[in-house]
Specification:
The protein is an alpha+beta fold. 67% of the residues lie in helices and 13% in strands. It has two domains: 209 residues; 213 residues, Alpha-Beta Plaits. The protein is built from 15 helices and nine strands. Strands 1, 2, 3, 4, 5, 6, 7, 8 and 9 form a nine-stranded mixed beta sheet that branches. Helix 1 runs antiparallel to helix 2, helix 1 runs antiparallel to helix 5 and helix 10 packs across helix 12. It is elongated, with a radius of gyration of 49 Å.
């Protein structure tokens, strides 16, 4: 059956090819004939007509020149020169036209005869023109010599000479029009005949091909229709669809491949659905599409990490039953995951009541991960109110007075990303100093009464998309180098007043710093600095104090 289908298809191809070759050969022949006729019109008749028209215009110029000179004034030497110069141009036109006609060669008797007629016409026009030109020169000479009797005798003949030229030009125009009409008529006939032959041969080829193809189609349509139905079912999301294999030909093999493909898709979807609940679905897709990522190892990339911690979780856990507590923490994780996923972040893990997420290639563009993380942090604050409503619905009046809030730390830098773990358990995650710094910044919010702290590198990458203010230069536990820290703001908080106070604080101008911070009584960070100033006044810093605040704990 398989060979039979191949033979029939080959037979159809041969028949169609044979007819197409016949059509192509004959079409080329007729097209060449048509092209020759059109070439005669375009490259012979039309150029000759244009040249004669230019000659006619030049002769009229000479005639008008003579009329003007003889009627309105005496001729001058330069007028004679102008007359002669026009005559040279006319003769050059005659010579170019004769050269054009002499270039035609071929065995087409109709064309040879037409060229001979045109050459004779050109010769007759040239002959009459030379007589006209000679007569004009005689008139110029008689007027210049003052031979008025001779001039009066010759002048009436000028128009006769010019009329003779016009008659010959009219004869040429008539011949050109006749030859052009003949060429157009032959071209039209050839085009019609070519269209008829092409249509006839193409129809025969189509009928032959359809006749043979119909024999094959009857045996293929049913199986193809089944495949189409199965494909539409898969396209609609029905991965349980399976097409029955009815034949042992190519369609049967294609059906087997289709069923195998659907089985693989079904398995992949189940894997994604199952493991997508335990890790970000994009990681699952990445690992499935690129199995090499499952091998232990990693690479260094600049990325952004974010830690979100739920403030007040201990108070909630003391009120809720275990099942309700799990339900509530799941609600929190759901809100945070929505904020992160909405901004293309990847949830790395849930740690107690905290969430760790990251941004960077291959999940985001290299130049947008910091801004996306900052946007996600602000989105998390908006989700916080929704979570508070969930808590109120879950524990009722017991929610009154609970301090439910967020603390977020964001850090950017060169991190190691890859698959780590043991033979029993693997994780696609990130590591490095920026990750540790992000965790420390989340905890540092406690010291400043802030919600979102970001590193200097995050602020550099995210500007100007974010609104922030510098909070401090700190040295976190485990690091020797100080880090400049900024607070991510959601609105236009008075940053100038705080910045003035911070500058004065670092210059140990305690009075000016205290005045600036007291102007911000509702700003927790300003209140922290007022406490520090009071402490530093009592215990002044050393002379080499650099303004860095050291965190002794995590």
């Amino acid at each position: 059956m398989r060979l039979n289908i191949a033979h029939k298809i080959f037979g159809i191809a041969c028949i169609v090819l044979a007819f197409m070759l016949v059509v192509a050969v004959y079409s080329i022949h007729l097209t060449a004939t048509i092209s020759k006729e059109l070439e005669t019109i375009a490259h012979k008749n039309l150029p000759v007509t244009e040249a004669v028209s230019r000659v006619n215009v030049s002769i009229l110029e000479q005639g008008l020149l003579l009329q003007r000179l003889f009627v309105f004034g005496e001729p001058k030497g330069n007028d004679r020169d102008f007359f002669v110069e026009i005559g040279k141009t006319i003769k050059e036109e005659f010579q170019a036209t004769q050269t054009l006609l002499d270039s035609e060669r071929g065995d087409n008797q109709h064309l040879v005869k037409a060229i001979s007629v045109l050459k004779a016409d050109i010769a007759a026009i040239e002959r009459e023109y030379l007589a006209f030109e000679a007569h004009g020169l005689l008139l110029l000479a008689a007027r210049e010599a003052g031979q008025n009797d001779k001039f009066s005798r010759l002048f009436p003949q000028l128009n006769e000479r010019q009329d003779s030229v016009d008659q010959e030009i009219s004869g040429l125009h008539a011949h050109v029009q006749e030859l052009t009409g003949w060429a157009v008529e032959r071209t039209a006939k050839n085009e019609k005949f070519l269209l008829f032959v092409n249509s006839l041969l193409t129809g025969l080829a189509a009928l032959s091909g359809l006749g043979v193809a119909a024999l094959i189609t009857r045996s293929l349509v049913r199986n193809v229709r089944n495949l189409v139905t199965g494909t539409q079912a898969v396209e609609g999301g029905d991965l349980d669809s399976e097409v029955k294999v009815a034949t042992d030909d190519e369609i049967g093999k294609l059906t087997e491949s289709f069923n195998h493909m659907v089985g693989e898709l079904r398995l992949k979807e189940r894997i994604k659905e199952t493991f997508g609940k335990y890790m970000d679905p994009r990681i699952v897709s990445n690992l499935l599409d690129h199995p090499e990522f499952t091998e232990p190892g990693g690479e260094r990339r600049e990325m952004t990490v974010m830690f979100i911690d739920l403030k007040g979780f201990t108070s909630i856990s003391e009120i809720l039953a275990p099942d309700d507590l799990v339900h509530m923490i799941n609600s929190f994780f759901g809100h945070m995951t929505d904020a992160i996923s909405k901004n293309n972040g990847v949830v790395d893990k849930f740690m107690g009541d905290a969430v760790m997420a990251y941004w960077g290639p291959p999940f985001t563009d290299p130049d947008e991960h910091a801004a996306l993380a900052c946007t996600a942090a602000l989105e998390a604050l908006r989700h916080l109110e929704k979570f508070r409503q969930d808590v109120r619905r879950g524990i009722g009046k017991d929610a009154d007075g609970l301090d439910i809030d967020l603390r977020i730390g964001i850090s950017s830098g060169q991190m190691i990303v890859g698959t780590v773990g043991s033979r029993a358990s693997m994780n696609y995650t990130i590591m490095g100093d920026p990750v540790n710094l992000g965790s420390r910044l989340e905890g540092a919010n406690k010291a400043y009464g802030t919600r979102i702290l970001v590193s200097e590198r995050t602020r550099e990458l995210a500007k100007p998309e974010i609104l922030s203010r510098e909070i401090d230069v700190i040295r976190v536990k485990g690091k020797l180098e100080p880090v400049r820290v900024h607070e991510l703001l959601g609105d236009a908080t008075d940053r100038n007043g705080f910045t003035d106070g911070l500058d004065a604080y670092r210059n140990q101008d305690w009075g000016k710093a205290e005045t600036s911070f007291r102007k911000l009584p509702d700003d927790p960070a300003s209140q922290v600095y007022l406490q520090r100033i009071a402490q530093l006044r009592t215990t002044p810093p050393p002379s080499d104090w650099d303004g860095v605040w050291v965190f002794e704990t995590k």
